[in-house]
Amino acid sequence: MFEVTFEVLLLLMAAGFAAGFIDAVAGGGGLITVPVLLIAGANPVTALATNKIQGLFGAATAAITYARGGHVDLGTQWKPAVIAFFASIGGALLVSVLPVDLIRYALPVLLIGIAVFFATKKGLNDVDRARRLSPAVFAATLVPLCAAYDGLLGPGAGSFYMLAFVGLAGYGVLKATAHTKLLNFASNAGALAAFAVVATPWWFTGLAMGLAQIAGARVGAGLAQKQGAKVIKPLLVLTTVTLALKLIWDLL
C-alpha cells in the first residue's frame, strides 16, 4: 500500500517527471521533489531518503540515453562509479561528525560561484578543452569528494560534478552532462544504502515517482543531446541560483 493517497501520489509523480527532465539536462531536480515530499507529509529525513529512491531511476535513464547517443562510454566509467558509491556512503555516515551547519552556510556561496562561472566563462560549449587532471587523478580526488558531499547533504551535487568535468577534466558541456549522470546514479545509490539503515524511506512512493522520472529523464536527455550547451548552460545557471536562494531562505 502506498504511503500517500492516490491524488497526492499523482502530484508526486508529476513532480518526479519534472525533476527527471531537469536532472537529465542540468541537475537540481531535488528542488522540486524534496519540497513536494515534505508537503505530502514526509519528515525531512524520509523526504531525502525517498528522493534518493526516485532519483536513481532518472539518473540511470539519463545515463543510458546519453550512452546510446554516443556521448559517454559506460564501460569505462564503472570504476569512478564504484568510487562514487562508497564515497557517498562514507559521506552519509559522516553527518554526525562533520560541521554540517557550517557547510550549509558556505554552500550558497559555492553554488552562486558555479552559476557565475557557467554564465560568464567564454568559450564554454560542447567542444572539449585541454584537461588539467588525468582520468586516474580525477577519479581518485574529485569523484569521491563530490560523491561524499552527495551522501552528506546532496543539494547541488550535480552542479559540483559538472564544474569538475568542465573545469578540470576538460569536457565540453554536453559531454560533461553525460558523464555526470552515472556518477549521480552511483552516489544516489550509496546514499540510499545508508538511508535504508538509518531512515524509513517511502519505498512504494519512491518507486512510483521513479517511473515518472524515467519518462522525464528521457525527454530531458533527448533535448540536451539536440541542443547541447545552448539549453544546458542556461538551465544549469537557473537551477543553481534557485537552489542557492532556497538554501539562503532556509537559513533565515
Textual characterization of the structure:
With 252 residues, the protein is mainly alpha-helical. The chain contains ten helices and no strands. Helix 3 runs antiparallel to helix 8 (173-198) and helix 6 packs across helix 8 (173-198). The radius of gyration is 17 Å and the shape is globular.
Number of extended strands: 0
| Oligomeric grouping of the chains | single chain
Counting H and I runs of at least 4 residues, what is the number of helices? 10
Described by strand count, sense and barrel closure, the largest sheet is: none
Described by the principal axes of the CA atoms, the overall outline is: globular
Query: Taking Cα atoms only, what radius of gyration do you get, to the nearest Å?
Result: 17 Å
Per DSSP, what share of the residues sits in E-state strands of 2 or more residues? under 5%
Helix/strand/pairing category: mainly alpha
Q: Percentage of helical residues?
A: over 70%
Order of helices and strands: HHHHHHHHHH
The N- to C-terminal Cα distance equals: 38 Å
Regions with pLDDT < 50 over 5+ consecutive residues?
none
Overall average residue pLDDT: 87
